[in-house]
Design brief:
Length: 459
């Protein structure tokens, strides 16, 4: 079991460690959460909107110190941590302003058709929702769940990743500081092993998990045993397809960003680059040169473009994926060897000539490792794009309308970005298919995931 501790990935030093909540503390927190359900509901949308804006103000005011905490806990460049905090504040305001309209039910035009004087729908909160969250966007991942949950009248309890306890504790006090009722959003300091019993607790109505496939399977199993609603946002091996009509220079620049933002540790980082044969050599040469030129270093230094991998195990995982591919005949065009010295650094890496027997063909590399594929034509490009157990995001570069239409229709993923890279926005639904999970976050779809869509009939 991982210790609940902040270990600076730049140095390998333990910054702070925490005791897990005892059974008694968990019991108190769950009782407080359950008691907060009617209190939160009684506030109504207008008051919750005001409090959510206050939470966004606090977050914005805390952006400098909080981004430093993020960087020291998980290693992303400071500017990216800062951008994450501000983006989270935007999501809070988005749900503050839109929740009520997103949760307005409809009335039937002809209620007589169902024998009623009036009939329609309404959305009611489910109650206490457990959020099991990852370390890679320690503030954004949590708040994109918490903002719609609280605005809908649901109460949140957070089990954050064990390596970001300071972010977790910050989040556990944010909503109380903003004036939400006691217990409306709390952090449980618990390890993964304690999650199933919290899911089984009768006071918990539902669970959402963002994380890896094994964690998702384990949470879905625990939720299934007690028949509770479950949303899963899991991993991905997102394709980034480039066709000959595309602006290759723009595609290369975006591809580098799409693979390496967040130190290459985002579920929606592009991971497989599928390049048409006609532009393959030009793309690969430029892409490799730009990947090799990125500045790896201390994420607190403003000139750093890629910081360390967040955990030692995470670095070992990508090292093994690249070593396996190399041993089976793949070409490593740049990078491919962990940096020596302190910290868990791994350089930007480009691997080509992959074959299906290599793990990198189908497994997610959670670090700055790009897998390159050559496609003879559109059919082959789409076949490779869909040859993955995952289906989270995707990007497709072309100016040919017929190709774009096929890509939008045929790529098996929760999103398709044309001539761009996959990004999450509060306004657009986010989620995946296949082994990337089920359910959606963000937009009006996300806020409805943890609501009871109730039919109302009046005779
Ligand atoms: P992880 O190991 O699955 O951890 C995620 C969370 O799940 C942590 O809080 C972890 O707690 C908990 N957990 C782990 N095993 C569990 C189990 N058996 N039962 C209950 N909870 C469990 O994932 P990670 O390595 O932190 O994150 C990387 C993965 O997340 C990647 O696959 C990435 O693609 C995916 N991800 C997906 C999205 C998305 O929106 N689709 C977004 C971000 C990341 P501990 O830390 O205590 O182990």
């Amino acid at each position: 079991m991982s210790p609940i501790a902040s270990i600076n990935p730049t140095t390998g030093e333990t910054v702070a460690s925490f005791d897990a909540d005892t059974t008694e503390i968990i019991e108190t927190k769950l009782a407080t959460a359950a008691a907060a359900v009617p209190a939160l509901s009684a506030l109504g949308f207008a008051k919750r909107r005001e409090l959510m804006h206050t939470a966004a103000d606090l977050l914005t005011a805390d952006a400098d110190s909080l981004s430093k905490t993020i960087t020291l806990e998980m290693g992303k460049p400071l500017a990216q941590a800062h951008a994450e905090v501000l983006k989270s504040a935007r999501a809070l305001r988005f749900y503050a302003d839109n929740a009520e309209s997103f949760l307005t039910g409809y009335k039937l035009d002809k209620p007589s058709a169902v024998g009623a004087r009036s009939a329609g729908t309404r959305f009611d909160p489910l109650g206490v929702v457990l959020a099991v969250m990852p370390w890679n966007y320690p503030i954004w991942q949590v708040l994109r769940f918490a903002a719609p949950a609280l605005m809908a009248g649901n109460v949140g309890v957070l089990k954050h990743a064990s390596n970001v306890p300071q972010s977790a504790l910050y989040l556990g006090s944010l909503f109380a500081r903003a004036g939400f009722p006691e217990g409306a959003f709390q952090t449980l300091l618990i390890g993964a092993g304690a999650v199933a019993s919290v899911i089984a607790d009768p006071r918990v109505a539902a669970v959402t998990l963002t994380g890896s496939e094994p964690a998702g399977a384990s949470v879905a199993e625990a939720a299934g045993r007690v028949l509770k609603k479950c949303v899963l946002e899991l991993g991905g091996t997102d394709p980034f397809v480039v066709m000959p009509s595309a602006d290759v220079d723009a595609a290369v620049a975006t591809a580098v960003k799409a693979r390496t933002s967040n130190n290459g540790q985002a579920c929606i980082n592009a991971k497989r680059f599928i390049i048409h044969a006609d532009i393959y050599d030009a793309f690969v040469e430029k892409f490799t040169a730009q990947m090799a030129a990125l500045t790896l270093g201390d994420p607190l230094d403003p000139s750093t473009e890629i910081g360390p991998i967040a955990t030692q195990q995470g670095r070992t995982d990508i090292e093994q994926l690249v070593d396996d591919a190399r041993a089976k005949g793949a070409k490593v065009l740049t990078g491919g060897t962990p940096s020596s010295g302190a910290g868990w650094f791994y350089p930007p890496t480009v691997v080509s000539e992959l074959t299906p027997d290599m793990r990198l063909w189908s497994e997610e590399a959670f670090g700055p490792v790009a897998a390159i594929f050559k496609a003879a034509d559109l059919d082959e490009a789409l076949t490779i794009a869909n040859d993955s157990p995952y289906g989270l995001g995707s990007a497709f570069w072309s100016t040919d309308e017929a190709e774009i239409e096929r890509a939008e229709r045929e790529i098996e993923a929760g999103s398709v970005f044309i001539n761009g890279m996959t990004i999450s926005y509060p306004e657009l639904p986010f989620g995946g298919i296949k082994r990337s999970g089920y359910g959606r976050e963000l937009s009006f779809e996300g806020i409805r995931e943890f609501c009871n869509l109730k039919s109302v009939w009046r005779g």
